[in-house]
Write a structure and sequence with these properties.
With about 70 residues, the protein is mainly α. It is built from 2 helices and no strands. Keywords: Membrane, Transmembrane, Transmembrane helix.
Length: about 70
């Protein structure tokens, strides 16, 4: 996998997950429900996955380039 697809997957993934987390946080602020709070916390972990995706894969690819 090249660098461009990795960055696109990471960027688009973080964009989508951040938007979902923002919507969940706004809905939780309007009507506090434990399911919305739990979903928000889950989105933070998914956001971290997409954020770290480009660095983890890039490190593996970079080692094989040498």
């Amino acid at each position: 996998m090249g660098r461009r697809p990795m960055y696109l997957i990471s960027t688009i993934g973080t964009l989508v997950v951040f938007n979902i987390a923002t919507i969940l946080a706004a809905r939780y602020a309007a009507t506090p429900q434990s399911t919305l709070g739990g979903a928000f916390v889950g989105m933070l972990f998914v956001y971290g996955f997409f954020y770290d995706f480009k660095y983890v894969v890039r490190a593996a690819v970079r080692e094989t380039d040498c």
